[in-house]
Specification:
Length: 119
């Protein structure tokens, strides 16, 4: 994948990710307000309270996931700048194009990712 295409794809991904992050943060903000309005609602025993907690947990998890994705995309863009984009950070071989298409921010080839037990 040429650097210009890679940069465009990563920037597209980052724009999407930022939109998802804003949405998740807006949800957290809304829940915070609802919780404040509910006053001293007991999360353990109030059914509405537990629903609120489950939604909160989901939105908070979503925030974390998207923040990680944005960091990963940033690292990918830095690699485009450095001229090392598309090279596996682990074994140094080119990352297959299909993998980059599916996951533009991938830092390693699928083999190394599987060995590391991540990505
Ligand atoms: Zn590799």
């Amino acid at each position: 994948m040429d650097p210009q295409t890679a940069r465009t794809r990563l920037e597209d991904e980052r724009r999407d990710a930022r939109a998802r992050l804003s949405a998740a943060r807006a949800t957290l903000e809304r829940l915070r307000t609802e919780r404040a309005e509910a006053g001293t609602a007991d999360d353990e025993h109030d059914p509405d309270g537990s629903t609120l907690s489950a939604e909160w947990t989901m939105a908070a998890a979503q925030c974390r996931i998207v923040e990680e994705a944005i960091a990963e995309i940033g690292a990918g863009l830095a690699r485009v700048d450095a001229g090392s984009y598309g090279i596996c950070a682990s074994c140094g071989r080119p990352i297959p194009r299909a993998r980059l298409e599916a996951r533009p921010a991938a830092l390693t080839c699928a083999n190394c990712a599987n060995c590391a037990g991540s990505q």
